[in-house]
Amino acid sequence: MRYCINCCIHLLPNDLHRQCFRCRGPDHNNQKCPVCRGENKIPLYTDRKQMKWLAVLEVRTDHCESWNGFFCLRKGKLCSLMFGLIIMTLVMVSYILTGAKHGLLLIPSPFHYGAFASNPSLMDNESLSDMKDYYQPSKMNISYVKDYPSIKLIIDTITSKIEFITRQRPDLEELRKQEPHMFSVIPNKFLPNSKNPCWYEEYRGNTTTDPYATNSYALYSKRFRIIFDYLRKVFWNHLYHYKDKHYRLRCLPHFYIIGQPKCGTTDLYDRLRLHPDVRFSAIKEPHWWTRKRFGIIRLRDGFHDRYPVEDYLDLFDLAAHQIQSVLQSDAVKERGKRNNIIIGEASASTMWDNNAWIFFYDNSTEGEPPFLIQDFIHAFQPNAKLIIMLRDPVERLYSDYLYFASANKSVEDFHEKVAESLQLFEGCVLDFSLRACVYNNTLNNAMPVRLQVGLYVVYLLDWLTVFNKDQILVLRLEDHASNMRYTMHMVFQFLDLGPLSEKQEALITKSPASNTRRPEDRSLGPMLPTTKAILRDFYRPFNTKLAQVLFDDAFLWKRT
Prior knowledge:
Layout: E1 44-46, E2 49-51, H1 75-102, E3 113-116, E4 135-137, H2 148-160, H3 172-178, H4 180-185, E5 198-203, H5 216-220, H6 225-234, E6 240-242, E7 245-251, E8 255-259, H7 265-272, E9 278-280, H8 309-314, H9 317-327, H10 330-335, E10 342-345, H11 373-380, E11 385-390, H12 393-404, H13 411-429, H14 434-438, H15 441-446, H16 456-463, E12 472-476, H17 477-482, H18 484-494, H19 502-509, H20 519-522, H21 529-550
Parallel strand pairs: 8-10, 8-11, 9-10, 11-12
Antiparallel strand pairs: 1-2, 3-4, 5-7, 6-7
Helix pairs in contact: 2-13, 2-21, 16-21
């Protein structure tokens, strides 16, 4: 509708101002007109709503109906409305994010995961730390919990799903199909006069050839380059020349310290390397069997080029040079004695880390790996000796957290990470076997703390499927710390090492402990009593089985 500006008389669309006093002619008197007098307040009806019209400067209206009024708002009002909506959205997002972090949301938080995907295509450009995105929420999605009774229900569910089922050992031919290059390099027979699995390999290079030019350990790590610079200088002097051909001595370790992390393996390594008959790889933890041969340099960086077995064998060249010197000596040749030097390797991931299998090996049975690290080691070294150092899994997990957590470490944060990891593990065992969950890369990288590393008996039973029990020495860190001389004697006897002088033994047993807890980590103090109780309940059935397998109740860790 339209309105006369001069006299405010209600007009119809086609009135043509015939009812307007002012428009009727020059005789119209504004003072006499009751409508036009300024002191009178004439109510104006706009779309059937009454308005108090005090002063009218100008009125311009279009044919807008009431249902379309919202779109006729002025720009200022529309901008204000949009700004308000943006502010409200930001406030809601802030509430959701902070609420999810501190467990304050009124709706369930999606920390409980269920089935996981096993997609080999993820390996190309994905970081292993990003695998958590491939989890799907479980039907039993529950809110984040901190109280002991609620978490105890989760632990009870996990305990009810525990089954220790013996795995089927793969055939040798199946292993050959998976790693043909490895089997082409490592022979099935070794030199008889050496404790180590050693053999001669023809070297086809010349004096100007760099034998370590393509070694991945030297290329990817600056701290290893000094070692390889030395090896280059002495390499030609240690070749064996026979009938115009050159041969280099290649060796694999006689024994492996295979686990577990944060259980004293570094201290055992540092003491054992002081023995005059023991040599180790050029670097303490090559991680070749578990990571490097799959192209894993750092877990967060995903996959790179795979390290060939030749790169791994290069790490034992220093020891091979010494063994060769002994083998070529006249005394050994005449008496036919064996060389007493033994080589060791101490990657603490060897026992448990089979996370990369899913990207390289097919024919998985219900999510379980068809091949494990021990299958390949046994295929080449059926007489290898294995040393395992264990620790109360509850304390191991806390030490692991303190060592690897980068920032914001606290006992409360540790408690929250334990609770979240338990929920993730529960979601897995509801749908998959225990072995499938323990060796699943996606689950292991999703859990904030490495619960699975403390499930010692699961890994030990799998190693016992390929190695005899007398080939494995299992130690406790608690015993090593309280009576170091006794544990070192056990190791010497296990490795058939000769007797030591008092001075040599004192040097090995009385040196300070290695890789102890950092001062800043000690300041945090012990974990919360509730956290310890939760972890005790979680690890109890696994410790019980471990004690049964080893016939030693000390592995129950009741007194720690």
